[in-house]
Specification:
With 240 residues, this protein is an alpha/beta fold. Helices cover 46% and strands 17% of the residues. The two termini are 25 Å apart. Bound molecules: guanosine-5'-monophosphate (G) and manganese (II) ion (MN).
C-alpha cells in the first residue's frame, strides 16, 4: 500500500494497493514482470480476482477499525474487457461487506478513453453507489480533455512524467500547471503521483495541488507497516 496524502492535514486519504509477488527465491517481484506473463497465460483472471478480494477485504476491515481511508485498486485493460468483471467485483464487495465508499477504482487514461457504453454504465452505477473512480497515468497517452468531462470520474492522477522536470524546465512547469487547471476547471480532483522531492511538491502546491503520492512522501509498504505509519492510531498521534 502507498498513501495519497492530503498535504494541508497530513492525512492519508487513500491507500493505493500495489501487487507484488513474494517469490520464494527472488527479491520481491514487481508487477511489470509477472502481469504480462499472467495475461498471456490467462492466469490474470485468477490473479485479478485474488487482488479484488484482498482489496475488498482490506477496505472493509479498515472501515470497521474506524480508519477513514479509501483503498484504491488498479484495473487492467484485460479485466475491463471481461464480460463478468463488474459482476465479480460486486461479488467480492458483497462477500466482504465492503462499503462502496471505501473503494476507489484506478483506470488508466488510455483505457478510460476507449471504454464502451456497457462499461461506462456499470461504472456510473458503481459511482452512484459511492465507489470513487480515478483516471490513472494521466498525461501518458492521448489525453482527450473533452472526453474527460463526459466520464464518470471523481479524480485524475497526473502521471509522474508530467511532474519529473518541473523544477528544471519552465516548459514542463507550464504544461503541468495548465493540465492541473484544466482538470480542476472540470470540477475534478487532482492527485499528483510520482512526487520525488520537496521542491516538486512546493511548486505543485503553488499551482493548486493538494493531494500527493510518491517516494518523497512514502514508498509502498506491506499492510502492517502501512498501518503503523498511516493507521487510525497513527493519525490520532499526529493530530491530537
Ligand atoms: O500505473 P500506476 O500509477 O498505478 O503505477 C504505480 C507504480 O509507481 C507502483 O509500482 C509504485 O511503486 C510506483 N511509484 C510510486 N511512487 C513513485 C515515485 O515517486 N517514483 C517512481 N519512479 N515510481 C513510483
Ligand atoms: Mn495506479
Amino acid at each position: 500500500f502507498q498513501p495519497q496524502m492530503e498535504v494541508a492535514t497530513g492525512r492519508a486519504v487513500t491507500a493505493e494497493a500495489l501487487v507484488r509477488w513474494a517469490h520464494p527465491e527472488r527479491d520481491l517481484v514487481m508487477p511489470g514482470f509477472f502481469v504480462p506473463v499472467a495475461e498471456e497465460s490467462g492466469v490474470i483472471v485468477a490473479l485479478g480476482d485474488w487482488i479484488m478480494g484482498r482489496v475488498c477485504e482490506t477496505a472493509a476491515r479498515w472501515h470497521r477499525l474506524g480508519l477513514h481511508q479509501r483503498v484504491a485498486i488498479n484495473i487492467s485493460t484485460r479485466e475491463l474487457g471481461q464480460g463478468d468483471f463488474f459482476l465479480r467485483l460486486r461479488h467480492a464487495m458483497a462477500t466482504h461487506a465492503t462499503p462502496p465508499a471505501t473503494l476507489e477504482l484506478e483506470i488508466s487514461e488510455s483505457l478510460a478513453m476507449e471504454m464502451d457504453e456497457r462499461v461506462l454504465s456499470q461504472l456510473r452505477a458503481l459511482r452512484a453507489d459511492g465507489v470513487s473512480i480515478a483516471i490513472d497515468d494521466f498525461g501518458t497517452g492521448y489525453s482527450n480533455l473533452s472526453r474527460l468531462k463526459d466520464l464518470p470520474v471523481d479524480r485524475v492522477k497526473i502521471d509522474r512524467s508530467l511532474v519529473r522536470d518541473i523544477t528544471i524546465s519552465a516548459e514542463a512547469r507550464t504544461i503541468c500547471s495548465a493540465v492541473v487547471g484544466l482538470i480542476q476547471g472540470l470540477g475534478l480532483e487532482v492527485v499528483v503521483e510520482g512526487v520525488e522531492s520537496q521542491e516538486q511538491m512546493d511548486m505543485l502546491r503553488i499551482v493548486g495541488c493538494t493531494l500527493f503520492q510518491g517516494y518523497h512522501l512514502a514508498r509502498p509498504a506491506p499492510e502492517e507497516a502501512y498501518l503503523r505509519a498511516y493507521g487510525a492510531s497513527a493519525q490520532t498521534r499526529r493530530h491530537g
